[in-house]
């Protein structure tokens, strides 16, 4: 009987779970306080197994009745604490750590013990804890991942799993080893270009783990629907190859056909195992692979590259918001990008699309307002033979210029955007040159981590630092709630416009171009609604019928970290 505490079959007490219904989107949605009979709806373990189950463990928050029903009496101290008091205690303990990496490790440990408390803590203290679970601290964590590794947090796919001649391969089999079957978002990396830190090989797993934590905390995608993946094809990092604690393959990185075949097998296995609606986000792939993979798979899979598309949406949103202060339209401005890799070129492409939409001109014509500067100087037509294909479209007729300061003086940009990974490259002279050209220059230093940033916000007074976490959680939620089957550039543009709409006139008057991060869940819901609306408009949504109010629907689908009652 429900609530009797009698054991049923495989050591599973029959009980009642209240506090919400688990569905395809959020685990606490719509029907709060309507009970579900276990174990058929939600499997809840008992005794020490329950305390070791991070999804259902509540620690000292288990009530007296719950302790009796689930065989916990004596396994916990007698005190019963609220979730709020638990959160207060954890936060106090975190603040005692002076080293950010120690805080990171403590948070990961909490996530492995008590999932709901981890996400409640992160949601309620997002501005304080974001730099710990995300950049810059996660970059340091990846560098030291082999030394701090305790428990695997994602799925590792390596060359050892690749299909060989007359062998069906083990990638699909490996995916099926993951315990969760209803996956909606995958973040995958091959570790070749982790932030601005270079090739970290298998230790890049910290990036997918961190990104997906934000998908849940900021975008409301339930944790069990998220899958972090690292594809290990070796590393060219000599220090890692010599490190006795390195956790990946000890070989040089493979390229070419062997690399492509493994990625093909992975993408096919994902589709076969999870269907066409699962979002695959490529993260921190090197430039030469990032653009290739996005173009290769975007027509047949639901794929997104945050380094290219997410960064572009955040920056475009900032530029649109800045126009409320500087005046004019995007077409009235001249843009100079310092850095012509994934981020720089991705932003430039979305910006050209936005100018084209606003001004009713071709994208090719819009690109004439945009200049790129890379490690060899200004990208001009005389360099065409040595340029990557994705850079050639921004090669304009101009004399070669190798120095950034001289490029600023010659081009006279109204906006300077840094994505180079070269720390302190926006020197005092560069900032002063921008200020002499423009009454209110737009300066965005985007590179991560902080040591790689072109300048600090204080040095440039660039109004605010752009952060991809403004976009990708809400963007992913929008794709999920619409059941989108493809990502189109107009969806990314809709996300940028959705973010720009969240800035208020008062915030603009204070010199901000992004809304406060404390409102990130509301921001994400609005972005999700804009993205979902565009998916429906383009005929790419499979979740029918279309909800009447997409903002409210997005909010209703968001995961809640509040404890449920097990009685």
Automatic annotation (TrEMBL):
<feature type="binding site">
    <location>
        <position position="284"/>
    </location>
    <ligand>
        <name>a divalent metal cation</name>
    </ligand>
</feature>
<dbReference type="GO" id="GO:0006108">
    <property type="term" value="P:malate metabolic process"/>
</dbReference>
<comment type="similarity">
    <text>Belongs to the malic enzymes family.</text>
</comment>
<dbReference type="InterPro" id="IPR015884">
    <property type="entry name" value="Malic_enzyme_CS"/>
</dbReference>
<dbReference type="InterPro" id="IPR001891">
    <property type="entry name" value="Malic_OxRdtase"/>
</dbReference>
<dbReference type="Pfam" id="PF00390">
    <property type="entry name" value="malic"/>
</dbReference>
<keyword id="KW-0479">Metal-binding</keyword>
<dbReference type="GO" id="GO:0046872">
    <property type="term" value="F:metal ion binding"/>
</dbReference>
<keyword id="KW-0560">Oxidoreductase</keyword>
<dbReference type="InterPro" id="IPR012302">
    <property type="entry name" value="Malic_NAD-bd"/>
</dbReference>
<dbReference type="InterPro" id="IPR012301">
    <property type="entry name" value="Malic_N_dom"/>
</dbReference>
<dbReference type="Pfam" id="PF03949">
    <property type="entry name" value="Malic_M"/>
</dbReference>
<feature type="domain" description="Malic enzyme N-terminal">
    <location>
        <begin position="111"/>
        <end position="298"/>
    </location>
</feature>
<dbReference type="InterPro" id="IPR037062">
    <property type="entry name" value="Malic_N_dom_sf"/>
</dbReference>
<feature type="binding site">
    <location>
        <position position="448"/>
    </location>
    <ligand>
        <name>(S)-malate</name>
    </ligand>
</feature>
<protein>
    <recommendedName>
        <fullName>Malic enzyme</fullName>
    </recommendedName>
</protein>
<feature type="binding site">
    <location>
        <position position="307"/>
    </location>
    <ligand>
        <name>a divalent metal cation</name>
    </ligand>
</feature>
<dbReference type="GO" id="GO:0051287">
    <property type="term" value="F:NAD binding"/>
</dbReference>
<dbReference type="GO" id="GO:0009507">
    <property type="term" value="C:chloroplast"/>
</dbReference>
<dbReference type="InterPro" id="IPR046346">
    <property type="entry name" value="Aminoacid_DH-like_N_sf"/>
</dbReference>
<dbReference type="InterPro" id="IPR036291">
    <property type="entry name" value="NAD(P)-bd_dom_sf"/>
</dbReference>
<feature type="binding site">
    <location>
        <position position="193"/>
    </location>
    <ligand>
        <name>(S)-malate</name>
    </ligand>
</feature>
<feature type="domain" description="Malic enzyme NAD-binding">
    <location>
        <begin position="308"/>
        <end position="536"/>
    </location>
</feature>
<feature type="binding site">
    <location>
        <position position="283"/>
    </location>
    <ligand>
        <name>a divalent metal cation</name>
    </ligand>
</feature>
<feature type="active site" description="Proton acceptor">
    <location>
        <position position="211"/>
    </location>
</feature>
<feature type="binding site">
    <location>
        <position position="467"/>
    </location>
    <ligand>
        <name>(S)-malate</name>
    </ligand>
</feature>
<dbReference type="GO" id="GO:0004473">
    <property type="term" value="F:malate dehydrogenase (decarboxylating) (NADP+) activity"/>
</dbReference>
<feature type="active site" description="Proton donor">
    <location>
        <position position="134"/>
    </location>
</feature>
